[in-house]
Q: What sequence folds into this?
């Protein structure tokens, strides 16, 4: 089709009203007042959980009532993150945190109940694998947390906490692009033991042609009595994701019709990811001031990719373990722990999508990390606290790969070993309704597998880069928060320096320690609440540049200078909530434009407006209608090598939610 976007045609509007009306017929004929949406909160660390620093949190009620299609949608709408995607769906994107864009998946750590779930390579973990139906709380920690969480937390941490609150809900929704979402959760206590199950089905053809996604995720949790001094929590989860890759567009194609795909053979761009995850957590309160906690997990992930020119399959197994001892005496709190992780990756590349007797390469990789950390906090005067910590980790990589067609060099017994330490120091003051903190971090990050080794049939100048060094750097931030009766304000100024940042050099055809880089910026958030309406606004400004080398003074690619996100909620009646929201993302450099060349066009800024209506028929039953990109803005979320990757045009979602 030649239309720029699907828009909201008369037929689609009629479909939305039919779905909305159909759910209305099912609504119980009772009434209840609409609960005012709780604002997103900012919280500090607890006595047994040092090292987090300032936390931006989204609580369970906010998650449930957000009508988000997936976790990425929730983080964009509520936390103001920018999550660009090659696939036209933010659920398959990678978040930009504190000015880290390219290969951001290897610098932003994702945790599920304290267990890392990121891959040991440059591949990202699709947000579809983390169903919002299972979540009690989402925490965003901006800035380095490498002492507490290891080298992959260089840019920040997204921490997901699953829910075991008794009760449940069921939600059904449908919308544009044949989107269908069904999700729910149920939890019950029996003789103080808790059991919860959750499930999500999410299908959509999405905005672009040949860009469909189909995901299923389900799991359960078993918890021992919460008042016992020795407690356990057992979790199991599984997810399956099928998705298509519509590929990038030239600028001319993007302007003509951003919905189109360049794919000629759909099977050559069909992908599948399956994941199983089991974790076990034990907590033992030695007394009222000391706690011992142990977490163990095993993850198995199988991925089948079809990239057109290459068809790689891999099987990834991850074992993780952590033991933490924490305590608090008088004015002193402490936390010390040991952690270890082992990833084994088996990799095969085929010539065609049929995978029939056309094997091109095989590879086996093992990544191991082992380390420990210590943190301490001293409340030395009323309102004043001083905290700090240090960590030490050892990392090793072993690679054996064979190129069967001779197109690339084989790697025989490629080995790398590295060690690194991180440190942090923070001074905080809190009085009545305001708080400020000054924080310093000494950071490091070990390379991931495909930054070091060329084993995926992507031919690099060196099959195994023995010269690639870990990234090392420093960061400083000053943050403050003021809480009033109706008005809250939070601000952060940050500056980070990184030596030897690892980037892919197209000229050298190799991942290299490119140069020293510097990121400076500030973040502000405001919220205001009255009886019948609430407003929030978030703004960030980031300057990310090379400090030296060939590109000294140039902007780093794909980092927008400014982002702005805001929303207003109004309750004209006790049962109705009306929300209007907007997002602005500033322009950024092409992903390959290290030279900041005038011959390469920038990725333009864009602004999106959305709205949501929610009607609460009873305390247990509510209906909603959500429209995103209301003005049908044409935009691209990514641009690489002058290829444009469009974002979604106007789209709607209508659904109902029953709580019990």
A:
């Amino acid at each position: 089709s030649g239309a720029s976007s699907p828009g909201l045609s008369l037929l689609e509007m009629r479909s939305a009203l039919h779905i909305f009306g159909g759910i209305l017929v099912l609504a119980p004929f009772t009434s209840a007042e609409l609960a005012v949406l709780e604002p997103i909160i900012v919280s500090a660390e607890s006595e047994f959980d040092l090292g987090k620093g300032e936390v931006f949190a989204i609580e369970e009620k906010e998650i449930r009532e957000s009508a988000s299609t997936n976790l990425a949608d929730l983080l964009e709408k509520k936390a103001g993150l920018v999550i660009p995607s090659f696939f036209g769906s933010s659920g398959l994107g990678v978040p930009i945190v504190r000015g880290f864009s390219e290969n951001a998946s290897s610098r932003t750590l994702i945790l599920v109940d304290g267990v890392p779930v990121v891959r040991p390579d440059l591949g990202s973990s699709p947000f579809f694998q983390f169903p919002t139906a299972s979540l009690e709380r989402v925490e965003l920690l901006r800035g380095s947390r490498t002492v507490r969480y290891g080298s992959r937390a260089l840019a920040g941490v997204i921490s997901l906490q699953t829910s075991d609150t008794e009760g449940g809900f069921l939600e059904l929704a449908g919308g544009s692009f044949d989107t269908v979402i069904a999700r729910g959760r149920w939890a019950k206590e029996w003789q103080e033991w808790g059991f919860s199950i959750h499930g999500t089905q999410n299908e959509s053809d999405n905005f672009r042609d040949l860009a469909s996604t189909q995901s299923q995720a389900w799991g359960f949790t078993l918890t021992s009595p919460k008042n016992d001094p020795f407690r356990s929590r057992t979790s199991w989860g599984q997810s399956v994701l099928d998705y298509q890759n519509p590929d990038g567009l030239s600028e001319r194609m993007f302007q003509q019709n951003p919905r189109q795909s360049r794919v000629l053979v759909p099977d050559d761009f069909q992908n599948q990811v399956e994941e199983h995850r089991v974790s076990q957590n034990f907590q033992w309160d030695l007394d009222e001031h000391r706690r011992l906690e142990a977490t163990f997990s095993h993850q198995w992930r199988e991925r089948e990719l079809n990239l057109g020119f290459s068809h790689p399959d891999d099987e990834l197994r991850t074992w993780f373990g952590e033991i933490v001892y924490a305590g608090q005496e008088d004015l002193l709190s402490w936390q010390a722990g040991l952690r270890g992780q082992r990833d084994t990756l088996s990799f095969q590349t085929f010539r065609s999508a049929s995978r029939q007797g056309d094997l091109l390469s095989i590879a086996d990789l093992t990544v191991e990390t082992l380390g420990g950390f210590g943190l301490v906090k001293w409340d030395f005067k009323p309102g004043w606290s001083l905290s700090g910590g240090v960590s030490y980790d050892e990392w090793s990589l072993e690679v054996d790969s064979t190129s069967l067609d001779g197109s690339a060099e084989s790697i025989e017994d490629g080995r790398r070993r590295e060690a690194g330490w991180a440190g942090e120091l923070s001074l905080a003051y809190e009085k009545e309704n305001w708080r400020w903190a000054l924080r310093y971090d000494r950071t490091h990050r070990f390379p991931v597998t495909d930054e070091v080794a060329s084993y995926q049939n992507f031919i690099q100048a060196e099959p195994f880069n023995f010269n690639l060094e870990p990234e090392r750097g420093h960061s400083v931030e000053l943050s403050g928060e003021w809480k009033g009766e109706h008005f809250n304000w939070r601000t952060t100024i940050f500056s980070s320096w990184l030596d030897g940042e690892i980037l892919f050099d197209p000229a050298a055809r190799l991942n290299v320690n490119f140069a020293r880089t510097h990121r400076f910026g500030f973040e502000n958030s405001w919220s205001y609440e009255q009886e019948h309406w609430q407003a929030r606004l978030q703004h960030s400004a980031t300057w990310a540049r090379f400090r030296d080398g060939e590109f000294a003074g140039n902007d780093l690619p794909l980092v927008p200078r400014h982002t702005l996100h805001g929303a207003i909620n109004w309750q004209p009646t006790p049962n109705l909530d009306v929300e209007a929201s907007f997002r602005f993302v500033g322009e950024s450099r092409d992903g390959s434009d290290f030279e900041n060349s005038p011959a390469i066009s920038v990725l333009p800024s864009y602004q999106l407006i959305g709205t949501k209506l929610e009607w609460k028929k009873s305390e247990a039953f509510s209906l909603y209608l959500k429209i995103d990109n209301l003005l049908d803005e044409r935009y691209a979320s990514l641009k690489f090598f002058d290829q444009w990757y469009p974002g979604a045009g106007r789209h709607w979602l209508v659904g109902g939610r029953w709580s019990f």
About this structure: Residues 10-26 form the longest helix (17 residues). Confidence is low (pLDDT under 50) at residues 1-46.
